[in-house]
Amino acid sequence: MTRSTVWRALAACAGIVLATQAIGQAYPSKPIRVIVPSLPGGGFDVTARVLSERMGPLLGVQMTVENRSVAGTIGGTEAAAKAPADGYTVLIGGLSNIALNPGLHPNLGYDPHEFRPIGLAVSYSYTLVGRRDLPANTLREVIEYGRGNPGKLTFGGAPGTGQHVAAVALFNQTKVDALSIFYKGATAVHQDLLGGRLDLYFDNTQTARTHIEKGAVKVYATSSPVRLPFLPNVPTVNETGVGKLEMETWFGPFVRRDTPQPIVSRLRAAFEKTMSMPDVVSRFENGSGRVLEMTQADTEAYVRAEIARWTKLIRDAGIKAP
């Protein structure tokens, strides 16, 4: 290799470095769209609005939340997958659209590995609750009743959601033949549960907590790895000894995998500053969430593991979205 060739190669590398730095310095120069693949309310939406309110000013632009609920969480996620990888479209990723959908939908219109997490902000457990006049008072009694009365127990949930998967996973492993009743959202499920027309709901603890504290439902177990401090008398599924289930739904901002690293770094820095704010932490914790603290490398490893874990579990259990 001649000296002139070496110099041209070095100049080209320097040019790439300078161009990359320029990308990071120029970003962002316009509003950032934050896609929420669900209806307003709930974990996806709350996470998007809390983060956008604080990350936007740190980045110097407005972050606009856009709710896109089409085919569950699929439509909004597909829209984010088709958007340019320029950092101006951020997806709120969660257990449902990133880790559960690949197992539930064999012909999914996106690959969850196409996305890269900026960070995970918060996670919520699920809590199994039942109508107040359900004869069973413990999870063991629920399972025994279900085994003794095949097809009589009913449970609610939107198809393909964590609520649905948690219930099916529990009943599959405990050999309970329960009837799944599909709803469009949690509000409709609770209307039937509180009205005594539905037996059980493995709800997100965030929304179940209000009904539990009012004494409007019976509460049987949580899917968390340890007991929740605000539900100290409620055992985990594992503690009951009737089955094994640890499941938390997590949420955080994601971008396309091929988004330039300087842009990812800008977003990550704003995310970290936001998650260090006491009022942000308290908003999530007061909403029954567990604030997550992970490095970006640990976050990416965790998300990959969750995709592999839940895809296998769902397929092995034969769980399918209708």
Explain what the structure shows.
By secondary structure, the protein is an alpha/beta fold. The protein has two domains: 31-123 and 248-317, Bordetella uptake gene, domain 1 (D-Maltodextrin-Binding Protein, domain 2, 3-Layer(aba) Sandwich), CATH 3.40.190; 124-240, Periplasmic binding protein-like II (D-Maltodextrin-Binding Protein, domain 2, 3-Layer(aba) Sandwich), CATH 3.40.190. It is 47% helix and 18% strand. It has helices at 3-26, 42-59, 74-82, 95-104, 139-148, 162-173, 186-194, 205-213, 237-240, 261-275, 278-286, 296-317; strands at residues 32-36, 63-67, 89-94, 115-117, 122-130, 154-157, 179-182, 200-204, 218-222, 248-256, 290-291. Helix 6 links the parallel strand 6 and strand 7 (179-182).
Protein traits:
322 residues, alpha/beta, D-Maltodextrin-Binding Protein, domain 2, 2 domains, 11-stranded mixed sheet, 12 helices, 11 strands, globular
